[in-house]
Write a structure and sequence with these properties.
alpha+beta, globular, single chain, Thiol Ester Dehydrase, Chain A, 2 helices, six-stranded antiparallel β-sheet
């Protein structure tokens, strides 16, 4: 692919309405890879005062998704499956989820992603399958 495609994917990430809920999120897309950083505050906690699983999923899925999208120039991808393995709870911290494509074929792109905390420890990891939708990237909010 090319830098213009990666830049367009990043704009699409920032333009998504859900990003209004996640203050300070940052996405970087490269060939077959993506990195998603987020400062965790108590606003993202569940009742037991640790990071809610929905935020783990958002970080992991988006990192894996944008890694997969880096190799698809035409169509918006959909998450077909995503499996998470939680490793440790997170309180207030800086997290980075990194995703990378591990295989592609038969219309499915498989990506793995890992979240690390500011100490470099893995807090969660997972793997997902992504498939092409009928929607063109060029028609998506923020792309191009």
């Amino acid at each position: 692919m090319n830098k213009a495609h990666y830049d367009s994917l990043e704009r699409m990430f920032y333009a998504a309405p859900i990003q209004d809920m996640l203050s300070g999120a940052a996405m970087k897309v490269e060939e077959r890879k993506a990195a998603y950083s987020l400062s965790i505050s108590k606003d993202y906690f569940h009742a037991a005062k640790a990071l809610h699983g929905a935020v783990y999923f958002k970080l992991l899925d988006d990192a894996a998704y944008f890694a997969a999208a880096s190799i698809e120039p035409t169509y918006f991808l959909l998450t077909k499956t995503y499996t998470i393995h939680f490793k440790r709870p997170v309180e207030i911290d800086e997290l980075t989820a990194t995703g990378e494509v591990i295989s592609e074929g038969n219309g499915v792109i498989v990506s793995r992603s890992v979240i690390t905390n500011s100490a470099g420890k893995v807090v969660a990891e997972g793997e997902g399958q992504f498939v092409r939708s009928k929607k063109l990237l060029i028609d998506q909010v923020g792309y191009r």
